[in-house]
From TrEMBL:
Function description: Part of a membrane-bound complex that couples electron transfer with translocation of ions across the membrane.
SUBUNIT field: The complex is composed of six subunits: RnfA, RnfB, RnfC, RnfD, RnfE and RnfG.
Residues spanning the membrane: 20-40, 46-64, 71-89, 95-113, 125-144, 193-217, 224-242, 254-271, 283-301, 307-325
Protein name: Ion-translocating oxidoreductase complex subunit D
Annotated gene: rnfD
EC number, UniProt record: 7.-.-.-
Keyword vocabulary terms for this entry: Cell inner membrane, Cell membrane, Electron transport, Flavoprotein, FMN, Membrane, Phosphoprotein, Translocase, Transmembrane, Transmembrane helix, Transport
Residues bearing the modification FMN phosphoryl threonine: 171
Highest classification ranks of the organism: Bacteria, Pseudomonadati, Pseudomonadota, Gammaproteobacteria, Pseudomonadales
Protein species of origin: Pseudomonas cuatrocienegasensis
Cell compartments where the protein resides: Cell inner membrane
Membrane topology term: Multi-pass membrane protein
Main location: membrane
Length: 343
């Protein structure tokens, strides 16, 4: 099967790469504000350190490849990767964890394949998955909302001290996955990880990223197909396998939409024009695949949130999706007489 050659979607035009990246960065501000309100300066420390690490790795690798460093740093793609990765990491993450995540994101997720426009995987999600698999304890140490002091948080970042036990809690997805006996109502009443509809605090964070995503849709920086496909598939899957409030329930549709990295993934990850599908029909299929896989991993997999894994798996499928969803050439009819596209 010969895969189609598709022009990079960011080379020229009024939406130059830097302008697009800056608009996406602007759209992350509501989510940054929500995370900062919940966890204090930890999110800001993540953002600052991840940005320095990503830009440093980008500059070093560009210099090693004898590419113009300043020119490529100006497109802000490395900065956006750092921001998305920092928002996905737990607040007050150890400095070395962020360093490793950014190194893999820029080195193995982007520059290894030739730079922006040639990477088959989403760099931020690749860096996130590498540290999630390698350091599961640190990646699941999320602080309880409004609990971390600045001094204690800095001590944890620098590796001087660990966070007190009472300040670290399981997320709502973690609590739901390991639950074997309590009903959903009992979990909401006894576990501080649960909020009104989703996880404690993550409801506000998801609504904030939803607001940022709607802003990007309004600016027409991407089409609606991938985010709607993901959210609709996640909603349908959670509705089909929702067992009410029983102890074996996997959570309601609203719970899954407002918990974890759902809205961040739907509007800032699956809309990546490089590692996703390119046609509108392909984007819809791509997004739906991410939503289905994210629910399968959440409900029956080994990790509480499956958005990052789902995105990487669908990145692998994107070329095949593009092959079978290519729009017909203008002026040509659809293939007939048993011939398929590409014959």
């Amino acid at each position: 099967m010969a895969l189609p050659r598709i022009t990079s979607p960011h080379a020229t035009g009024s939406n130059r790469t830097q302008q697009v990246m800056l608009q996406v960065l602007l759209a992350t501000l509501p989510g940054i504000f929500a995370l900062t309100w919940l966890f204090g300066a930890g999110t800001l420390f993540n953002l600052l350190w991840a940005s320095l690490c990503a830009l440093g790795f980008e500059a070093a690798l560009l210099a090693a490849r004898k590419r113009p460093v300043q020119f490529f740093l100006k497109d802000c793609s490395a900065l956006l990767t750092a921001v998305l990765l920092a928002l996905a990491l737990p607040p007050y993450s150890p400095w070395w964890l962020t360093l490793v995540a950014c190194g893999f994101a820029i080195g193995f997720g982007k520059q290894l394949y030739g730079g922006l426009g040639q990477n088959p995987f989403n760099p931020a999600m690749l860096g996130y998955v590498v540290v999630l698999i390698s350091f599961p304890l640190e990646m699941t140490s999320w602080p309880a909302p409004h609990s971390i002091g600045l001094v204690e948080g800095l001590g944890h970042i620098l590796g001087i001290a660990s966070l007190p036990d009472g300040w670290v809690q399981a997320t709502a997805l973690d609590a739901l996955k390991i639950n074997k006996s309590l009903t959903i109502n009992e979990l909401h009443a006894t576990s501080p990880a649960f909020g009104y509809l989703g996880g404690a605090g993550s409801e506000a964070v998801n609504l904030a990223f939803l607001a940022g995503g709607l802003y990007l849709l309004h600016k027409r920086l991407f089409s609606w197909h991938a985010p709607v496909g993901m959210l609709a598939a996640l909603f349908v899957m959670s509705l089909l396998f929702w067992n009410g409030s029983g102890s074996d329930s996997n959570g309601s549709p609203l719970f899954h939409l407002l918990t974890g990295a759902t809205m961040l993934g739907a509007f800032f990850i699956v809309t990546d024009p490089v590692s996703g599908a390119t046609s509108n029909r392909g984007r819809l299929i791509f997004g739906a695949g991410v939503g289905i896989l994210a629910y399968v991993i959440r409900a029956w997999g080994g990790y509480p949130d499956g958005v990052a894994f789902a995105v990487l798996l669908m990145n692998l499928a994107a070329p095949t999706i593009d092959y079978y969803t290519r729009p017909r050439t203008y002026g040509h009819r659809k293939p007939t007489n048993g011939f398929k596209v590409g014959d």
